[in-house]
Each structure stands twice: as structure tokens, then as C-alpha cells.
Amino acid sequence: MHMSLAILRAGTWWRIPLVIVLAAAALGCDANAKATENDGKKQAPRPPAVVVEEVQPQTVPIYTDFVAQTYSDTMVEIRARVDGFIEQKAFNTGDVVREGVVLYVLDRRPYEAAVRKAKADVTDREAALAFARQQVELVEAQAELAQAEAQNVRYQMDVARLVPLIQQGFIAKQDLDNAVQFEQATGAVVRAKKANVEQKRLTTRQRIDSAAAALEATRAMLADAELNLGYATIRAPIAGRVGDTAVQVGGLVTKNSSVPLTTVIPLDPISVRFRLSESEHLAYTKTHGQQVSSSPIQLVLGDGAVYAHTGQIKRVLNQVDARTGTLELQADFPNPEGMLRAGQFGRIRYKADEKRNALLVPQRAVQDLQGARSVLTVGADNKVVARSVVAAERVDQHWIIDQGLKPGDLVIVEGVQKVQPGMTVDPQRAPRS
Known about the structure:
Layout: H1 2-13, H2 15-42, E1 49-54, E2 57-71, E3 76-78, E4 84-89, E5 96-97, E6 102-106, H3 109-134, H4 136-168, H5 173-231, E7 233-235, E8 240-242, E9 252-253, E10 262-265, E11 270-277, H6 278-288, E12 296-300, E13 311-316, E14 326-333, E15 345-362, E16 367-369, E17 372-378, E18 384-395, E19 398-403, E20 410-414, E21 426-429
Parallel strand pairs: 1-21
Antiparallel strand pairs: 1-20, 2-11, 2-15, 3-10, 4-6, 4-9, 5-8, 6-7, 8-10, 11-14, 12-13, 12-15, 13-14, 15-19, 16-17, 17-18, 17-20, 18-19
Helix pairs in contact: 3-5, 4-5
């Protein structure tokens, strides 16, 4: 009896750890089941986040683009005004030069010699004029006239003195006759001397005038020689960018050459020409009238960038080109940095109209499938809704939506690729720009 109890107790002893192990296993399974349940709850998909913009009506300008080309209406051809060999070329092709800077220097020696000769001629003519103004011959003639007049007066006095003596019989009549003859002779001499004086006066005046004219002509020759000497140094008449040279150092240039030495194109401002069709011109006239518009315009460069400075339409040609049916307009743009050069192509963009209560949507939010455009919106329950829209015109990076949206709609602008209609999303407002 005691033996069997001992055996039982011994047999029960190994069952106790087994029960503990089974209990621990049961507890572990229960814990795993709860962990699995919790993991399932954590792994439930969250609604994807999207960025939305609220569509609100606004007034937007409508711009029109036209193909344009830059040019310079004040391009200057540099030509020689005198003949000579080039001794110096003071620029490199493409340099930006200031007004008055030296471009070429010709051989100055022939023109310097001409200036020296002209100066000597001026000095000689000045001396001749001074001598003519002294009136030497006129003075001599006047002196002779005075002497003859004095003699005539003396004989007149003799006649006057002898007349009463003859009447009183104190002297012979022959003495009076001799006195009268001398008076008449000296009177004739006086008249001749007066005529000579007048002749000398006319001759002297003619000589003075001739000498003065000769002096002026010589001075003009000196001015012409100095001008030619100045022309031997060729300067830039305006500021701008200089082109290539047609004649190198050592080459002969002539004032009658048909080919200019080089050209200078002003950089600031620079002009742009573009053309409007007849219908576009009529629309332009209705908007701006016959006067040139003072509204600023933009220039879109060849790389698509908008030029930093705005321009203004300055000129409208007076007739439509019959060959192309277009009218040319010309605008001027500031170009202080010299970025633009004549001959570049681009697009003129100007404000053609203004649209009120327009609904704008970013281009990246509009999906285009075989010409049918649509956007994704978020409804009140945060569900995605597809809307078919009609996009009329493009303004910068936005479309103007004419149909399909209303003010207050939330349009998805970021995250379009990861959502579909009917999905629930987490909408986040786009930051205001």
C-alpha cells in the first residue's frame, strides 16, 4: 500500500511540469492572436494625402504671342571720309564701344602738311590785307590834292587882291591876267587831283575787299585741311557693338568706297518688329484705337525665358503688306546689360484682352486623353470625383476653365497619379503663392 502511493507520487511528479508547459503554450498562443489582431488594426491602409487648390473666380489678363525679331533702326555704317592707309585699328570685333572712341587711324602726314601750308597762306593773306588797309596810295593822292588846293587858293587871293589895284590904275592889266591864268590852271589841277583821290579810294577799297576775300578763302582752306586731318582719325559716332572690319591695318581706304569699313549697332534700346494678321490688327484697333498702345509688352526669348525688361510699342507701319496680309508693328526694349543683339528671334507677348470671373487651374492638374480634358476634385466626403472640363485659354502655367467647374471646387494639383475616382483621400490645401 505504501509502495503504490510512492509510485503514484513519483508518477505525478513529471506531469506537473508538463501541465505548466501546456499552460504557457496556451498563454503564448493567446498573446500571439492578440498581437496579430493589433497588427491587423495598425496595417489598415490610410487615405493617401493629396494637395488641393480651391477654385475661385478672378480677373486675368489674356496675352497674345507673335513671332518677333530684334533689329536696330539706328545701325551706323562706318566709312572713311578721306583717302589713306590704315595705320591702326583700335578695336576687336564684337567690342562694345562708347561714342567718340577711336576705331581707325589713317596716315596723317599728308593732311598735317596740308594744314601747315594752309596756315602759312593765311598768314600771307593777313599781311596783304593789313597793307591794303593802310591805304598808302590814297594818302599820297590826298596829299597831292591838298597841295594843289593850297596853290589854287593862293592864286585866288592874288586875283582878289589885284582887281581893286587895276581899277585904281596902280598896276598893269597884264599882271591881273597872269594871276587869273594861274588860278584857272591850279583849279584844273585841283579837279584832277580830286578825281585821282576818288580813283585811289575806289582802288583801295577794292584791294581791301579782295585781300579780305582772299584771307577768308585761305582760312576756309585751312579749316578744310584741319577737317581732313580730323577725318584721318575715324571715331565711333554712336555707342554700341562694333562689327568686323572690311580692311585690315596697312590697307588702303577711299572715301568713295561702296563697302563700309565696319558697322556699329546701338544696344540700348533695341528694337523688335513683329507682324499682325488683318483680323488681329482689327482686334488690336478695337482694343487700343488707332493710337499706338502705351501698355507694356513682354519679349519671350528663344529659350522660353521672359526677358527681364518690358518694352513698349512705338511704331505702326502705314500699310498692310499685300503679299502676306500682315501689318508690321515695332517696339523698343531697354537693353542696359547688352543681352539682346540684332537678329535674334523670339515672341512678343502683349495684353490683348481681360477676362473677368475666370476659373484658373494649374496645367499639371489637367489630364488630357485624346483631346478630352478632365480634372480630379475632392468632394465633401473626401472622395475623389472626376470632372470633364473645357479649357479655353492658357495663362502662364494655368488653364482657364470655361465649363466643368464652379467656384469653391477643390481640385487636386499634386498626387493625381496615386488616386482614382471614388477613393477617399486626405486633402491638404496648397500654400498660397
